[in-house]
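Reminder to self: tokens first, then the designed residues, so the page reads top to bottom the way the pipeline ran.
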């Protein structure tokens, strides 16, 4: 039997999907809370009283875990690094919470013994805003991975000159680039994702770069973005008022860089 779990080696909480419910990391006995987080500014939101605010039901929030006698946070060998992961005076003076760095939300999974169930949304810093909407790289990636010819996708936000926020871009490898049906893939994206969440750029890579714990690396991809003068991988784009991906060329790149693309 395979059971889905969520946790961190240095963390003080564990979630388990013991009831085998769909699309959830399960439940926990730890004292956890979801607090409001500003994705655009990459910071925790606080009320007029200076304390953090809990999110509404089923809304994504930053997952924090209370540190106490029953949920000790040992942290890292580096004391300074340990302190960075601790949030203090969150809901009252003197309290301490472990900052997981993950955006989580509660979900309705039906009958679940009265236990609250949770769903992973994204890592803080990975979610981005585009067209005044929050875009979860994890959720978009799951949709792209559902297409039959996509091996694994890595979704991230990139800046477009003259535009607020970040536009979606995805890197993935294909079983066969030459036989890949871009029109069918475009139709799949168009029907599966809201307009603001559709990646405007696609980068075809040979192999996915991951960390030692198999987390997707995004920083280099994000920094290289869609600059075809520096990136040798094929890059495709979705132009405004178009529903089909096409190869990105120097002419359109110049249009983008001159802030005339209309995104």
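Designed residues (263 positions):
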């Amino acid at each position: 039997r395979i059971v889905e779990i969520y946790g961190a080696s240095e963390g003080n909480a564990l979630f388990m999907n013991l009831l085998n419910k769909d699309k959830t990391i399960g439940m926990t006995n730890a004292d956890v809370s979801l607090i409001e987080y500003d994705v655009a500014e990459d910071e925790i939101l606080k009320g007029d009283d200076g304390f953090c605010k809990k999110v509404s039901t089923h809304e994504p929030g930053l997952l924090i875990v209370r540190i106490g006698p029953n949920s000790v946070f040992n942290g890292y060998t580096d004391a300074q690094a340990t302190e960075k992961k601790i949030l203090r005076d969150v809901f009252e003076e003197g309290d301490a919470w472990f900052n997981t760095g993950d955006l989580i939300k509660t979900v309705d999974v039906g009958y679940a013994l009265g236990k609250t169930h949770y769903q992973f949304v994204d890592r803080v810093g990975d979610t981005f805003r585009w067209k005044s909407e929050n875009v979860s790289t994890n959720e978009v990636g799951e949709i792209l991975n559902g297409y039959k010819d996509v091996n694994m996708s890595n979704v991230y936000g990139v800046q477009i000159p003259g535009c607020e926020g970040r536009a979606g871009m995805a890197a993935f490898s294909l079983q066969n680039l030459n036989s890949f049906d871009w029109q069918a893939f475009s139709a799949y994206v168009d029907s599966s994702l809201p307009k603001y969440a559709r990646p405007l750029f696609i980068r075809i890579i040979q192999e996915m770069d991951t960390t030692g714990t198999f987390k997707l690396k995004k920083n280099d991809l994000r920094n290289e973005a869609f600059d075809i003068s520096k990136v040798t991988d094929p890059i495709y784009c979705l132009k405004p008022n178009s529903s089909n991906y096409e190869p990105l060329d120097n002419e359109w790149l110049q249009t983008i860089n001159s802030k005339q693309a209309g995104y």
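The longest helix spans residues 182-192.
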